[in-house]
Amino acid sequence: MSLEAGDIxxxxxxxxxxxxxxxxxxxxxxSLYSEGTIxxxxxxxGKLMIKAQSGAFADRLAxxxxxxxxxxRKNGALSSMPYWSLPDAALDDPGYACELAxxxxxxxx
Length: 109
Prior knowledge:
CATH architecture: 2-Layer Sandwich
Radius of gyration: 13 Å
Low-confidence stretches: none
CATH superfamily: YgaC/TfoX-N like chaperone
Distance between the termini: 33 Å
Strand content: 25-35%
Helix content: 25-40%
Number of helices: 4
Order of helices and strands: HEEEEHEEHH
Oligomer: single chain
CATH class: Alpha Beta
Strand order of the largest sheet: 1-2-3-4-6-5
Mean pLDDT: 95
CATH topology: Yope Regulator, Chain: A
Structural class: alpha+beta
Shape: globular
């Protein structure tokens, strides 16, 4: 499955208030950057994921009910990535989505 143009337009519009917003297609999905730093992914199924390593921001996302991206490797082992689902409210509120993106970027510094 690969993203449609409308999916990409949605993600770019949602985060349009971020400075120097760029995106790049990768592995059927999309990576999103602000000023050259990755802060989110859109998976090939259209699900948006915000970057958060372990720490306060990741704990905050977990408290909001966000789910960490976990996948099954070819050998059957589970592996997690430093990306979390966006809260549903952020998908309908660009201001909230951008707030989370700024927090994701700040947590990487």
